[in-house]
Amino acid sequence: MSARQILRRTVREAPVHLFLLLPNLSVLFLVYYLISNALKPRAEYYASEFALPRTISFDAIYAAITDGNMLGALKNSIVLTSVSTVVAVFLGACAAYAFAHLRMRWKTAIFVAMVVPMSISPLIVSIPLFAQLAKAGLINTYLGGIIVYVGLQMSFAIYVLDGVFRQIPEEVIEAARIDKAGPVRIFFFIVLPMAAPGLTATAMFVMLAVWNDLLVGLLFVNSPGTIPITANVVTFQQKFSSDPQIIFAGLTLSVLPILLVYAVAQRWFVGGLGGTFR
Amino acid sequence: MARVELEKVCKTYSDGTRAVQDLTLSIADGEFMIFVGPSGCGKTTALRMVAGLEDITDGTLRIGADIVNDLDCGDRDIAMVFQNYALYPHMTVHGNMDFPLRLAGMVKSEREVRIATAARTLGLEPYLGRRPARLSGGQRQRVAMGRALVRQPSVFLMDEPLSNLDAKLRVQMRAEITALQRQLGITTIYVTHDQIEALTMGDRIAVMRDGRLQQVADPATLYAEPANLFVAAFIGAPAMNLVEGRLGADGTLSLGPQRLRVGAGEAEASPAPRDVVAGMRPEALRLVHDGQGDTARQVVGEVHSRESVGSDLYVTLSLANVPPLSPETVALAHVFEDSAEAETLLADRSARLTIRLPPSDRLALGAPVRLEVPPGALRLFDRRTGQALPCSGTERQ
Which residues of chain B does A105 touch, with a Cβ-Cβ cutoff of 8 Å? Predict the structure, then answer.
C-alpha cells in the first residue's frame, strides 16, 4: 500500500473513528472520575473533582472496606453471582437441549412460555415474589437470592442457548445415538463440549447481569451477611452522605472485579455466539 | 454380520408425504447393496429406517433373525457413515474412534488394539492426535469410516459418504471402500445418487423413484436389462437411447417411416401390435456403410452434434421423420430437478440417437449416417406403463 493510499484511507475512515470515539470517551470519563476521586486526599477532592490526583491516598478505600462492609459484600456478590450463573446456565442448557434436539409435544408453546418472561420487568413480579420468599423464610438468605437470580436469568439463558445448540448438526447427535449414547450422555459428552464457546458467552452475560443487579440485592438479600456489592454501595448514600469520596471508593471497588473479568474474557463474550460447528 | 430384510416397509410423514412405499428387499449376509435414485426418491429415508433414525410407519425390518422395527438405533448393531461425516469436533481422531467403544463398555487394552487396527487399515496413524478441523476432507471421511469400523458391526450403513469430496478423491475412495468391504465382508448398504458409484461399487443395486423400488439387480443385469424406462434412462452415461415406435404383429418395429426387425430374444409373445419405446445403448450401435450388414436391422439419420470426452467420441444423430419422445414417455423415463431440463428435452423436433465412436472418427455435422442395431441390443418398453416387454433374456425379480 502506498503512502498516498494510506493517507486516503485514513481521511476516509476518520469520521467513523471520531463517531466511535465519543461514546468511548464518555464511558472512559466516568471511570476516570470514579477512580481519580476515590484515590485523592480529601482536600484535593474539594479543590477540584475533575483534576488528576497529585498525591495518592487510600483513606477512602480503607474506610469503604472497614466501615462499609465492602469485603463482606464482595464475598456475597461472588457467592451469589457464581452459583446463580452456574445454575442458570446449566438449567438453561438442559432446557435448550430439549428444545433444540429432542422430540416432544407442544415444543413451540412451551418454548414461548419459557422465554416470554424475559420481556417482563422484574419490578412487576417483585411484590408477589417477596411474599412467596418471605413465606418460605428465604429472605436474606443466599438460597433465596440464588433462586430469584436463576429465575430471572433462565429465560435469557434458554433463549440464547437454544440458538447455540441448534447450530450443532443433527447428524452429529444421530451419530452419537448410533454409537449407543443416550440423551444424557449426548448432552454431557457431545452437546456441552461442542457448545463450550456459546456456554461461556452465555455465562458471561448472565454473570454481568447478576453482578450489576441492584433490585434483588435491595429487596431480597439486604442484610449485611447477604447483601451484594452493588446494593451495599447504595447504602453508602445514607451512611457516608457527608463523605462522597467513600461512595466513589465503594463504586470503584464494585466495578473493578467485573472490569477485570471483562478485560480477561472479552473475546468469549461475542465470539461464542457466532460460531458454527462444521 | 447379518442379513437385512425389509418387508413391505413404508414411511409416511405426519404431513401425509409417503417417502417410502412397500419396500421389499432382502440383503444377503456380507453383500454390498447400493440404494440409488434421484434426490427425493426415498433412498436416504430407507437407509435411515434401517439405522433406526426414522420410525417405520408400516412393514417389517429384520436384521439377522430379529425384527428390529422398535429397537433403538444404538441396539441394532449397525454403524453409519454420514454425508457430512458427523465427526465429534471436540475429540481427536483417536477420541472419535474410542467414543463408541467406551460406550460399549470395552476394556482399554482391547479398545486400543481395535483403534490401532482401524487406523492402520485406513492410513490414519499419523493423525490420531489431531482434531477433525485440522484434517482434509478425505481424511475426515476416513475417520468417519474408522469410527464405524472399530465397532465391528453386523451392518454398515453409508449415506452418500463421498459426495463432499472432489472428483479425483471420490474415484480413489470409491475403490478403497469397495476393497475394504470385500476384505471385511460386512453387510453394507450404501446410498448414492451417482449411478457410476452404484455401478462400480455394489454387488447389487436397488434403483428407487418416488419412494418405490424400481429394480434390484447386479450392475451388469441392471445395465443390460433395465426393468422399465426410468431405470433405462437413469443407469448409464450417456443414457440409453429411447425412441418411440410401434411393434407390428409381424415382429417389425416401426420408428416413423423406418423399419427394424425385432430379434427372437428381444420381445417374446407380446400381444402385438402395440406402442412401444425402443431402447438402445450408445456403445451397442454400429456405424455401417450403405449396403453392408443386416439391412433389416438398420436405421438412418444425420449427425446433429458431436461431443468428445478424450477417450471416446459421442455423436448424436437425428432420425429424420421419427417423432421425438412424447411428454408421457419423458415423464415415465425421467425425474427432473427443474422444469427447464424437461423443456430442453421436449423441444427436440425429431428422435435422437447417441452413439459411441472412437475419438479419431471424423463425422461431419449434417452427414448422413447408417446405423446397425446388433442382435440383442434392442430393449422394448411398453409405452403406456414404461415396463420392459418380457424377452427371453430378462431375469425376473
Answer: none
